[in-house]
Design brief:
The chain is an alpha/beta fold. Helices cover 40% and strands 23% of the residues. The chain has 11 helices and 14 strands. Strands 8-9-10-7-11-12-13-14 form an 8-stranded mixed beta sheet. α2 links the parallel β2 and β3. The chain is globular.
């Protein structure tokens, strides 16, 4: 089947910011490919607001994920609600043999990641994880350039950003935040997240779950998963973490790590402050060439991902170039890949097995950071 004769019907679970700013507008623009047919959220006002944003036809709405996942009017279940419910709703969708698109982080514990992997094996459905940066054309170009290098000597991964609100208010999508949740839903979210953190940090890492470790794990799962997933595609899995500095719950949310690869190291720094800018990049240094891919905010549609190359030419001269292949944003390119995944049977590179590796790296960073802090405490005492 091709775009000319197949419209993929999408049911979205979660009608918060990312759905309002990115998913609904992108699916609307790609009306030759998709139609949003169902919306699910525990906020009645969010359902009403988002249903008016959908073009083509008025979607059905429900507060119950089971109703959406079981609907014959849904081909793809797009999961974009709270991280705490990504796994149970993915499992529910797979039980109904749906294609599942899960916003990152797919899971926050190895146990939950394994549950999705096993459920996919036993389902006629399949899973694609939403790492949109990895579908940006500039990123794909950079992966190829880096792959052609004779060697990698060093690399840097950086993601220092201001508040999302500063970009969202410039997006032209006019999202709204609603608070009409039932007390039981709020309590259920809190209890589920507590259970996830206890499993991931307490059981799997053997580390105390407290304010600091919980905040760090959530940051790694949100902003950090973008960077670490892209780093893995460019360079593979690190061998170890030589050291890490973790943010503290009462301080600015900044963290850093030094990854060891077989023949080189990668420095990683990330954080969120109040400065309204988006400074995200991956830079790889080879013998005669340096390749850097720069990402801009995904909340303003059409901002390009660019590739920057500095190299020594055969005649000994220096050349610096910037490549912008397209203004198509990463979310649009990602949704086109989703269409190929559903209709054409193209394999997704952002699989459940791939996403599990992020959780492994979260643990490596957490352990290295806590070991470093313990050593510092000894010196202070």
């Amino acid at each position: 089947m091709t775009a000319g004769n197949k419209i993929v019907r999408v049911g979205i679970i979660g009608c918060g910011e990312i759905t309002q700013v990115a998913h609904i507008p992108t699916l609307n623009f790609l009306s030759d490919y998709f139609q949003t047919t169902y919306l699910c959220d525990v906020s009645p006002n969010a359902l009403t607001h988002c249903s008016k944003k959908v073009t083509g036809s008025i979607p059905r709405t429900t507060p119950d994920a089971e109703t959406l996942c079981s609907s014959p009017e849904v081909d793809v279940v797009l999961i974009a609600n709270s991280d705490a419910f990504h796994v149970p709703h993915a499992l529910l969708a797979l039980t109904h043999n749906k294609v599942v698109f899960i916003e990152k982080p797919m899971a926050l514990s190895l146990q939950d990641a394994d549950r999705i992997i096993e459920a996919e094996k036993n389902s006629a459905g399949k899973v694609m994880v939403g790492y949109m940066r990895r579908y940006a054309s500039g990123f794909l170009d950079a992966v190829k350039e880096i792959g052609d290098m004779d060697q990698v000597r060093y690399a840097r991964v950086r993601d220092i950003v201001g508040p999302n609100a500063d970009f969202v208010k410039q997006s032209g999508t006019f999202p709204k935040v609603f608070g009409d949740y039932k007390d039981a839903d709020v309590k259920g979210l809190e209890e589920r997240m507590e259970g996830i953190l206890e499993q991931a940090i307490g059981t799997e890492l053997g580390v105390e779950v407290n304010g600091d470790t919980a905040v760090q794990w959530r940051h790694l799962g949100s902003l950090g998963s973008h960077d670490l997933s892209a780093m893995r595609e460019v360079l593979g899995m690190p061998v170890s973490v030589l050291g890490a500095s973790l943010c503290r719950a009462e301080g600015p949310p900044f963290w850093s790590a030094l990854f060891q690869y077989p023949s080189f190291a990668v420095s990683y720094e990330s954080g969120i402050d109040e400065v309204p800018r988006f400074d995200a990049s991956i830079e790889v240094f080879g013998g005669n060439k340096t390749v850097k891919v720069c990402f801009d905010s995904p909340y303003v549609k059409g901002l390009p991902t660019t590739m920057h190359i500095r190299e020594k030419l055969e005649d000994g001269s220096f050349r610096e170039s910037v490549v912008r292949k397209t203004y198509e944003d990463a979310y649009t390119l990602e949704m086109k890949e989703l269409y190929a995944f559903v209709v054409e049977g193209k394999r997704a590179k952002t699989t459940a097995e791939d996403a599990r590796k992020d959780v492994e790296i979260f643990g490596m960073i957490m352990k290295a950071g806590l070991e470093g802090q313990a050593g510092l405490n000894k010196l202070e005492n």
